[in-house]
Amino acid sequence: MVGQLSFFSAEARTPAKADLAGFLCGPGQAVSFARGTAARVYVELRDEWRHQPLRQACAERGVTSELCVNEEGTRFVRTPFRTDLTPLAARWLDGSVKKVPTGFELNGAVLRIWALAAGSWMESAYLLGLDPNAPQTHEPLQNALLASGLPCTLVGAPALRVTGRRRLARLAELVGSPPHGVAMSTWPAA
After folding, report:
1. pTM of the entire structure?
2. pLDDT (tens digit per residue) in 76-89
3. Residue 98, pLDDT above cutoff 50
4. Percent composition of the chain: helix, strand, coil (DSSP 3-state, to 5)
5. Mean local confidence (pLDDT), 30-46
6. Which residues, other chains included, contact 102 with Cβ-Cβ below 8 Å and sequence gap of 6+?
7. CB 141, CB 129: distance < 8 Å
8. How many whole angstroms separate alpha carbon 39 and alpha carbon 87?
9. What structural domains and CATH numbers belong to the chain?
10. Under 8 Å between Cβ of 131 and 26
11. Domain of life here (predicted)?
């Protein structure tokens, strides 16, 4: 049986730079430069496998990115400073403090990048990692998931925990099939 593709699915939408908000839903950061005339986004990598699909997601949106390693050995994917990322950064920053934009709505493309950046399985639940340094974003993101048809629970990792067959099926429908190189065991599924 062939399922119907959801209008909100990542696979049903044309990739857009605004989808890179998925970095920011998780532990990613936005940084403005030169009085807000340019911005970049970046995310620390918890797992080795994440860098290629995240870089591919950026490339699909016409944004170059690079894998970087800082002095402590922390790996992260970051974009260069770009003028076309300033609207994204402006929506997600209040000065230098990360915030969820007013009226923020999740779609499959943003969820897909969020899952690439910070998604993982824990027993029978799928976790979408949050920014531990931005607790003010946790409840608004929980509400955005709820509005997307994904009731979830905030857990201490911090992460939003999605459980239940129907909810996991909805999440899998929204994020689409795993990108090339991403193991099924790490990707949302019903």
Report:
1. 0.93
2. 999 999 999 999 99
3. yes
4. 40, 20, 40
5. 93
6. none
7. no
8. 9
9. 10-186 (3.10.28.10)
10. yes
11. Bacteria
d(CA 115, CA 123): 16
Q: According to the model, what pLDDT value does residue 184 have?
A: 86
Q: How far apart are the C-alpha atoms of 37 and 49, rounded to whole Å?
A: 32
Q: Closest by alpha carbon to 141, among 104, 108, 173?
A: 104
Give me the helices (H) in the chain, please: 21-25, 51-60, 86-92, 108-118, 138-147, 165-175
Query: Please, which residues have CB within 8 angstroms of residue 145's CB and are 6 or more apart in sequence?
Result: 106, 128, 151, 152, 160, 162
Q: Residue 185 carries which side chain, given as an amino acid letter?
A: S
Amino acid at 124: S
Residue 166, both tokens: 């129907």
